[in-house]
Fold this sequence. Notes:
Helices cover 24% and strands 44% of the residues. The protein contains three helices and six strands; from the N terminus they run ααββαββββ. A six-stranded mixed sheet has the order 2-1-6-5-4-3, covered by helices on one side. The chain has helices at residues 7-20, 24-28, 49-60; strands spanning 31-38, 45-47, 63-74, 80-90, 95-108, 111-118. It is α+β, with helices and mostly antiparallel strands.
Amino acid sequence: MPDHPSPEIDLLHAIYAAFNARDIDAAVALMTDDVAWPRAFKGGSVLGPQAVGAYWAEQWGEIDPHVEPVAFHPEGDGRILVDVHMVVRDLAGAVLADELVGHRFTFERGLIRGMEICPVAGSDGAG
């Protein structure tokens, strides 16, 4: 096991930690000015760090998501697929979802350029 993950994996650990801490400023500082981000909770997507932050603030007013990366799968094109354990609770604490999801990240100039939701690594999407 390598002692030092790649700079991109370090970046991903940091953004997940910032998201879970509800630290929008720290998280969006890791994104390019034209980052593309899915609105998983509402559908569609947003562009730009400010729009991502506004979406997250809206989301956190309605649900309490926690995302923990469990595996990183670098892809040949510079993207990284992350297997993520996601637990979503309502604001009263009841579990709405507890599942493994895939997040595929693209990078540009040492920052996150985009994220998409996809099947976890090794999943064929069927089932």
